[in-house]
Predict the structure.
Amino acid sequence: MRIGLTLIEVVVVTIIIAIVAVVAIPIVDSRVNEARLRASVRQMQIIVRACELYRATSGSWPANTDSGVVPPEIADSLGPIDFSTTPLGGTYDWNGPGTSVGSLGISIRFASSRDAPLPDLLELDCELDNGDLNTGAIRLFRGRYFQFCVE
């Protein structure tokens, strides 16, 4: 009776584990990315609905805020949404009246255009809007503001 494994058995098991990892890692990675996209969409929809509700009851949009800062007018309506970070990276930025972005809405603001995950943003636009980041309700401004426009 022998105790232990031969070198061939160890190599075969290692190869099998490597093959499983090569197949499984891209699948898991794509699911994680899809979950981040869905979470971003859902959070932006919640923020837009809170702003629309505020406008319906007060007659005006929440005031413009700095990037990463929750508009105080809607803070109670948002629950655990954190404006200082988003599932896609960047920060949420409410572009209210007086914004320099050009349109009212909620943005995901990236530090630079290099940080904006354009394939993910285009996928979101295709799902929720018209598939063109230059027109429609969802737009990319200045290469780093991915905005869900409300007006």
